[in-house]
């Protein structure tokens, strides 16, 4: 396959000549609760505890106006202990940790009691929520090699246990719609998939995107007493009309838009309406890790009406080759999305 980044033999990164207002926002207008962050082995690697200086990371976050964060990488057992040891200095005030369970044990006869026991133990150690990663919805197979649907009764005990233990579930269910389409000249994420073909979920070995949305809805419907934050724009930030209908149907559903400012900002009229209408149901997150701290475009998208700007500080657009626009939210909505909604959820679920 030829390099999709090369146009007429050169690496083409055009600089716009548009002279539109450009607002530099180095610090958010209000305090920010980063609700989708990774400080552990899931994203950084198994030796994460020696790879970065947490004090530096926290200082950098504070300089952007971040006042608290959810670290989703608590896992369970010894790994949870190791993660909490790394973040020990900040566990009371700055870092909230979510854990998870070992779904490779799904075929064990005692899986359900394992889930309850593990989440109870992890809660006693301080976790406030459960991260359900896409390894479940996109990759998980049973011992016979059969794909396991996200709404499978065997998985349901995780959501039931979380609800009973008043733990919030943060669920990453699907990836961008383009990742489920063929990697060809029509794919809007072709340049990215060309470099990372392992991100493609096209083909019979995977569920189709629409099947995943049906499963996601079933999980929300079957667990009305469990609070879900469905990550990455409710799994479907390309179709805010659909996400809105889900939010209308399932009062236990909240969303973040981690790694989706590129989607929010490319449909500014729809996004502005959506963010205003659902301002009580959206929490702020970016999917940050200590090596990928990228806030300015997120703030600029939410706070300004700037036009046609880069959604990332990286030299080449990482998630779709396009520019974005600001949606100019008013203060009341901004405050809820930046920190009030997630604080309310954590208080309701954890502190009562
Ligand atoms: Zn993430």
Rg, please? Answer: 20 Å
Helix content: 25-40%
Report how far apart the termini are.
56 Å
Total number of distinct structural domains: 1
**Class by alpha and beta content:** alpha/beta
Count of DSSP H/I helices: 15
The stretches of 5 or more residues where confidence is low (pLDDT under 50) are none
Can you tell me the CATH superfamily?
Metal-dependent hydrolases
Strand order of the largest sheet: 3-4-5-6-7-8-9-10
CATH architecture: Alpha-Beta Barrel
Question: Cofactors and ligands present?
Answer: zinc ion
- Tell me, rounded to a whole number, the average pLDDT: 94
CATH fold-level label: TIM Barrel
Question: Helix-strand pattern, N to C?
Answer: EEEHHHEHEHEHHEHHEHHEHHEHH
Strand tally: 10
Q: Can you characterise this structure?
A:
The chain has helices at 41-44, 48-51, 54-63, 77-86, 111-125, 134-139, 153-164, 190-195, 209-222, 231-234, 240-249, 261-264, 268-277, 296-303, 331-351; strands spanning 6-7, 10-11, 32-37, 66-71, 95-99, 129-132, 168-171, 228-230, 253-256, 282-283. With 352 residues, it is of the alpha/beta class. The strands form two sheets. The protein has an eight-stranded parallel sheet with strand order 3-4-5-6-7-8-9-10, sandwiched between helices. It has a two-stranded antiparallel ribbon with strand order 1-2. Helix 4 links the parallel strand 4 (66-71) and strand 5. The longest helix has 21 residues, at 331-351. The model has no long low-confidence stretch (mean pLDDT 94). Bound molecules: zinc ion. Zinc ion binds at residues 36, 38, 258, 287.
């Amino acid at each position: 396959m030829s390099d999709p980044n090369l146009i007429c033999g050169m690496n083409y990164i055009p600089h716009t000549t548009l002279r539109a207002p450009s607002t530099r926002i180095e610090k958010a207008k209000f305090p920010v609760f980063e609700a989708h962050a990774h400080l552990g082995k899931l994203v950084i690697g198994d030796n994460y505890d020696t790879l970065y200086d947490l004090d530096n990371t926290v200082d950098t976050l504070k300089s952007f106006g971040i006042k608290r964060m959810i670290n989703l990488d608590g896992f369970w057992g010894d790994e949870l202990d190791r993660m909490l040891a790394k973040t020990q200095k900040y566990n009371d005030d700055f870092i909230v940790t979510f854990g998870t369970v070992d779904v490779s044990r799904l075929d064990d006869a005692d899986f359900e009691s394992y889930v309850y026991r593990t989440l109870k133990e992890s809660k006693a150690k301080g976790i406030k929520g459960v991260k359900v990663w896409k390894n479940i919805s996109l990759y998980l197979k049973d011992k016979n090699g059969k794909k396991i649907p996200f709404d499978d009764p065997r998985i349901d005990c995780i959501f039931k246990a979380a609800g009973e233990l008043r733990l919030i579930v943060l669920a990453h269910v699907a990836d961008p719609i383009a990742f489920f389409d063929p990697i060809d000249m029509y794919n809007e994420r072709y340049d990215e998939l060309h470099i990372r073909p392992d991100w493609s979920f096209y083909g019979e070995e995977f569920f189709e995107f629409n099947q995943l949305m049906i499963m996601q809805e079933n999980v929300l419907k079957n667990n009305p007493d469990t609070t879900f934050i469905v990550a990455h724009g409710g799994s479907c930030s390309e179709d805010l009309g659909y996400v809105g209908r889900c939010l209308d149907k399932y009062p236990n559903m909240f969303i973040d838009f981690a790694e989706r400012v590129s989607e929010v900002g490319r449909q500014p009229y729809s996004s502005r309406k959506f963010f205003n209408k659902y301002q009580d149901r959206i929490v702020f997150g970016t999917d940050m890790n200590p090596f990928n701290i990228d806030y300015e475009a997120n703030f600029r998208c939410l706070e300004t009406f700037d036009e046609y700007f880069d959604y990332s500080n990286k030299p080449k657009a990482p998630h779709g080759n396009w520019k974005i626009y600001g949606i100019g939210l008013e203060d009341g909505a901004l405050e809820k999305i930046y920190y009030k909604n997630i604080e309310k959820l954590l208080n309701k679920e954890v502190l009562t």
